[in-house]
């Protein structure tokens, strides 16, 4: 079972602002900031009750990175997509059913400013 993940980002402030806006519809918010200096931390942790997704100031990601986050319902997937796009994300698959995975796989995909393929997904039986 995965406990947490840290993503290296070249501009921690830009990335933190993107994730804060994009993840809010999923009930995920920035919970911790540490490292660096008190005025300019170089790590941020996001979660609902405890952090599980961390951003760390560093070299940009190279290669493919895909993170899928569970959404409580389809409306939350839609809201995630709209928030992520408004925050500066790039469309990588608008909200909809992905029947090639299964008939109730409703997801949206957005590329973050750093190139991560960020997904919100809701599984249902309809």
Distance between the termini: 27 Å
Please give the count of helices. 2
Strand content: 35-45%
Give the structural class. alpha+beta
Overall mean confidence score, pLDDT: 95
Estimate the global geometry from the Cα principal axes: globular
Percent helix among the residues? 10-25%
Major sheet attributes: 5 strands, mixed
The number of strands is 9
Low-confidence stretches: none
Order of helices and strands: EHEEEEHEEEE
CA radius of gyration: 14 Å
Distinctive features:
126 residues; alpha+beta; 5-stranded mixed β-sheet; 2 helices
Characterize this entry briefly.
This protein is α+β, with helices and mostly antiparallel strands. Helix content is 20%, strand content 37%.
Architecture overview:
By secondary structure, this protein is of the alpha+beta class. The chain has helices at 12-23, 74-86; strands at residues 5-9, 29-34, 43-47, 51-57, 66-70, 90-91, 96-97, 105-111, 117-123. The strands form two sheets. Strands 5, 6, 7, 8 and 9 form a five-stranded mixed beta sheet that branches. Strands 1-4-3-2 form a four-stranded mixed beta sheet, with helices on one face. Helix 1 (12-23) runs antiparallel to helix 2. It is globular. The mean pLDDT is 95.
């Amino acid at each position: 079972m995965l406990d947490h993940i840290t993503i290296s980002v070249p501009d921690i402030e830009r990335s933190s602002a993107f994730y804060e806006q994009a993840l809010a519809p999923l009930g995920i918010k920035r919970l911790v900031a540490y490292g660096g200096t008190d005025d300019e931390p170089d790590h941020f942790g996001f979660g609902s009750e405890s952090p599980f997704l961390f951003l760390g100031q560093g070299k940009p990601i190279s290669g493919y990175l895909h993170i899928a986050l569970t959404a409580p319902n389809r409306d939350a997937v839609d809201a995630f997509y709209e928030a992520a796009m408004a925050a500066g994300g790039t469309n990588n698959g608008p909200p909809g059913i992905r029947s090639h995975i299964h008939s109730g796989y409703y997801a949206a995909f957005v590329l973050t400013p750093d190139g991560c393929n960020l997904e919100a997904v809701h599984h249902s039986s309809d």
